[in-house]
Design a protein that fits this description.
The protein has 387 residues and is an alpha+beta fold. It has 13 helices and nine strands. α5 (169-192) packs across α7 (254-262) and α11 (346-352) crosses α12. The protein is globular, with a radius of gyration of 23 Å. It binds adenosine-5'-diphosphate and magnesium ion.
């Protein structure tokens, strides 16, 4: 009856109204006119900061006047009136690329920055040949990208929701281990070739399809110049490590994995070849497993509780104390905000510990070049906005 009909209409609208203010509506209409999409369809995900929609593009046979097919895209629409963005300030503060972007008190601009950051980061990932959505268009708070899903509009599952199939538990466990190794290779490539740390990596921000892991949700990913890069990397690796551990994978120690990702000898040799890079990563990881000579992790199957306890302590020390304390000591936040970068102590630390040697061994010039490129883009955007 009339009442239920109105009720439903209201419910439908409320999902959209969260995000689709007048300006956002106008952007969608523009994308429809440009035939980038035909409409916004179902909501794939409603999040704190953004909603993701399936956006079909219908193809027609103009002469016959019939629809011939549907090609799906994904539209991530950042919410423009959201307080949780305050939380995310810290991702921007101190990062070179956004040094000049103080957007406190201006939500729309702030949200636009996030969408922009995600768009650029997706470009970087694509350039490096990492599996992720291809970014199609960005307009203010609307990011249009490749749809990761089937031709019917069903998105690929998040890694969290994946149930692997196999002949027995052993085979399934083996598949999880293979995915674990694949992911570590991706994180290493992301670090060395894209020069990024995801900074929100977990089983929720990885999609899975046919043995391939796709990285998504990279708006908060940070470059090597961010003061908390290594905190985020450590957190990312810990998150995915414990996920795979829960799946029964004999995961490597946090510290070992951190060294694997940051080692300056890793990844760089195969910058132009993602497949060779993945193979090299897998080989290195197998070597790391083979090199585990402590009784606790030895191949003889015996567990030495003392060694195991020592490993746990080492892990815990690494996790909770090692990097945070050091980083907070070497970075003066005020200096970072002014763009002066890290000061003092770095050289000493550099010499003191191989971890930091790995971390600091990057090619500074390429970073600067990349930034110059991106600053130029930003200037263009601003010019666009004025006309
Ligand atoms: P949030 O910031 O809300 O976490 P995400 O980028 O993680 O946003 O996207 C939320 C969800 O939307 C993902 O978990 C995934 O299920 C889905 N999703 C995001 N991007 C795509 C895409 N390109 N193709 C298919 N599904 C996607
Ligand atoms: Mg997410």
């Amino acid at each position: 009856d009339n009442k239920t009909h109105l009720g439903r209409e209201k419910a439908d609208r409320s999902t959209r109204d969260q995000v689709l203010d007048k300006r956002t509506e106008a952007i969608i209409e523009h994308m429809v006119r440009k035939e980038l999409i035909s409409e916004l369809q179902g909501v794939i995900s409603t999040g704190k900061e953004a909603n993701v929609y399936a956006a079909p593009l219908y193809t027609y046979d103009d002469e016959a006047g019939v629809q011939t097919g549907t090609h799906y895209r994904a539209a991530k629409i950042y919410k423009t009136s959201i307080l949780s963005f305050v939380d995310r300030e810290r991702y921007i503060t101190g990062e070179h690329r956004f040094r000049n972007g103080g957007h406190k008190g201006n939500n729309r601009k702030m949200v636009k920055k996030w969408a922009e950051k995600e768009f650029r980061n997706l470009q970087r990932l694509n350039r490096a040949g990492l599996a992720c959505p291809y970014p199609i268009q960005l307009k203010a708070n609307v990011l249009l990208m490749e749809f990761l899903g089937d031709s019917e509009g069903h998105a690929y599952p998040r890694l969290r929701d994946v149930e692997l199939e196999g002949v027995d538990d052993n085979e399934i466990a083996q598949q999880w281990r293979t995915l674990y190794i694949q992911l570590l290779g991706l994180v290493r490539r992301l670090y060395h070739v894209c020069r990024l740390v995801h900074a929100d990596l977990s089983e929720y921000n990885i999609l899975y399809h046919e043995h391939v892991l796709y990285l998504i949700d990279v708006s908060q990913s940070v470059g090597h110049d961010h003061p908390q890069t290594y905190d985020f990397l450590r957190m990312d690796l810990h998150n995915v490590g414990s996920f795979f551990h829960r799946k029964g994978v004999d995961t490597l120690r946090d510290r070992t994995v951190f060294e694997f990702v940051t080692a300056s000898s890793g990844g760089a040799q195969h910058a132009d070849d993602p497949t060779a890079d993945a193979a090299a990563a897998a080989e290195t990881i197998e070597q790391l497993y083979a090199a585990l000579t402590t009784p606790a992790e030895g191949a003889d199957g015996e567990t030495d509780t003392e060694a195991l306890a020592a490993l746990e302590v080492d892990n815990e020390v690494f996790r909770t104390q090692y990097i945070p304390q050091s980083l907070h000591q070497i970075y003066d936040e005020g200096m970072v905000a002014r763009g002066d970068g890290p000061v003092g102590g770095v050289e000493a630390l550099h010499a003191k510990d191989s971890l930091y040697r790995n971390l600091l061994a990057g090619d500074k010039k390429s970073d600067a070049e990349e930034d110059a490129e991106e600053d130029a883009d930003e200037d263009n955007d601003e010019a666009d906005e004025k006309d």
